[in-house]
What does this fold into?
Amino acid sequence: MMEPLTLAGTELIGRARRGEVKAFEDLMAPLLAPAHRLAVGLLQDPQLAEDAVQESCLRAWRRLGQLRSGNPVRPWFFAIVVNQCRDQQRGHWWRLQRVHDPLRWSEGPEDEAVRRADLRAALRRLNFRDRQVVVLRLYADLPWAEVASLTRLTEAGARTRMYRALQKLRLPEPEEVLT
Amino acid sequence: MNEDTAALKVKAALDEIYQPVGSPLQNAIAQIGQRRSHRWSFAGSTAVAFVVLGAVALVATLGPHIPDRRAGITGLPGATPQPISRTTSAAQVAWLSIQSQASQPYVIGVDPSGNVVGRIDSSSGPSGLRRSADGSQLFVPGGENITAYSALTGKVQRSYSRLPGDIVATAFSPDGHWLALLISSRSRSLQLIDLITGGSQSVPVSSAGRGGSLAMFTPDSSRLFLLEDWGGPLSIYALTLTGGRVHVTASAVDGLSGHHFSRCNGPAATGKVIANGATAVVFCHSDGVVSFIDLLKLEGAGSVRAHQRSPFWLAPIFTPDGRLLYLHQLPAFGDTMQLLDLSSRRLQGPVPLPADPTPGGLFASLLTGAYAGGVASTVPIAPDGLTMYSAVSSGIVVMRIPDLKVVARLAPGMQCDEVWVSGDGHTLYVTSANSRLLVMREDGSDLHTVSLPEPSNGFLTSERA
It folds into this structure.
């Protein structure tokens, strides 16, 4: 995943903070797709996720002054996305409830699809912090340090939380989580 | 099991609903620019003005090469929630046409619990069956009679006498009281059957036309209009139902006595009475023209062309509030969903459709019913008029009216062919692969399956025009 920590990234931040929208666009461009994927993981709705990323971009533009030159952009922007998803979930939970669980599907070639649907349903039942850890680590492939930063946990705390979340999901817990 | 394996499972589950978006996210930035210019344009500070200029510049920068997929929906009237009237248990039962290998096609009924409640065999085949507007009965025409079946059980309820001849148009009054039959023999007659008392009356209607015929009740069931076109000048009859009797109150023929109408150049029109019975909207499959008729004056009231490449392959979808008409184009000709605002009688332009990998596009399920200039067998709109459903190869897409923004995806991973919404809007029935019928609540919960005896040809619905 691209991380604009380079000198060019630093320069972009400076230009964006001075109001250069093209610089802001260049700064955000590589982050939009992974941010959307992250939002889909948290909200389980591509359109809601798109809205969340859109709102996050707006927030990011407003908060550019809080981003220090030289600091990584991705954790900063992902934190905005995660917060936006949390807010959006509060406002649109009814929509998430609409998303379907084929609980009584009979045996057949769709069994795998059913299992995937069951897992999504189980993810939705997790509290937001637990879901956050699982999605950030297992879906967005973020390093533990970044997961911990985004969830405001220690690394050990984040690992423990994922261990418990996977138990709730009834997925076998990763062996190395607690190591 | 290690972290990689757990990650694989989570990725498989979430990737199934993940749809990568490219330009829409870029477009989101452009919309941010628009919001900024809107929100801050009233502020007077230099800094704010600078930001506004920047936002405008961003929009200008992105505009030429990033299509705004929601641009076509600007200014659309919001959908008006419609009262739910088809609330009887019978109206919640789905009736499906079954294509039998060993016998005549027949229909079966399935209730919201997934139980098969009845079967109707008809010598005339399912194409002759009609479902009442209130959804409570099914009608099978015979040579001398019309047999009414309960939509709750599939059992015969009663029989009505009919005039001899070919039935060229039918219409049920929205209140479930009347069945109108336009019958052609040596002459043409309108037979009106009182579905409550079983009584019948008829009036002659002369017509030079020999082609497309349309019978349309007003929403309050107090008036009926017969329209004939193709093979002769367009003619229209206005009839009223007062005191239980039908009367022809007016008629008009195109080109006579100063009456002028937009003509349909083929025998394939469908229509709807809107604006509290003041206007009829007629869509012509042959040329794609949507014409308006002032029903109070029996005068043509203009027309709109949807500019689709092949109007013959369009699936028209009226919203229940009568304010919008969607016209979906067969994907081979562009997969475009044009939208007409029937209130202003304007073409609003194409509605951006959500991307979907289903062969044939998001509305492929409509094509079977809309084949060869017909009308889609199911109108995939909830009875409250607020949401539209589409059955796709990976589930059901739930869209918001009017902009068709996706608000939910149901039964992900399931191959779905056609969807029907029950009368009260609370149950979805979906034909699926391997002769299966999916039955679920409107939010996708409580899903279960019914194994159909043989493949289905689709649903028998009240909405069919």
The first helix of chain A runs from residue 7 to 17. Chain A has eight helices and no strands. Residues 1-5, 91-109 of chain A have pLDDT under 50 and may be disordered. Chain A touches chain B through 59 residues (CB under 8 Å).
